[in-house]
Design goal:
single chain, 81 residues, mainly alpha, two-stranded antiparallel sheet, 4 helices, 67% helix, 5% strand, elongated
Length: 81
């Protein structure tokens, strides 16, 4: 085993690796559930046009929160073997 194999290293595909983990997928599901619950009451009280607008607002809010889980401008490090 070389010295390089024993220590974590920066990786180019770290964001992709993170997005494939079960923890990330569970966090995304939790965010979606939370945002949907927040918008549920408002969606019941509004008309069809407002519901259409809220649908896109809800999608944007989910995307905003999920983007914070794995930002593109972050350096990612592989875990040590």
């Amino acid at each position: 085993m070389t010295g390089r194999d024993r220590y974590p290293a920066f990786v180019a595909d770290g964001q992709q690796r993170l997005r494939q983990t079960s923890g990330y997928k569970q966090a995304v599901a939790d965010i979606e559930r939370e945002v949907h619950a927040q918008f549920a009451e408002r969606l019941k009280r509004v008309g069809p046009i407002s519901r259409f607008v809220l649908f896109f607002c809800r999608r944007r809010e989910v995307a905003r929160r999920v983007s914070k889980l794995a930002p593109t401008e972050t350096l990612y490090v592989s875990s040590a073997p």
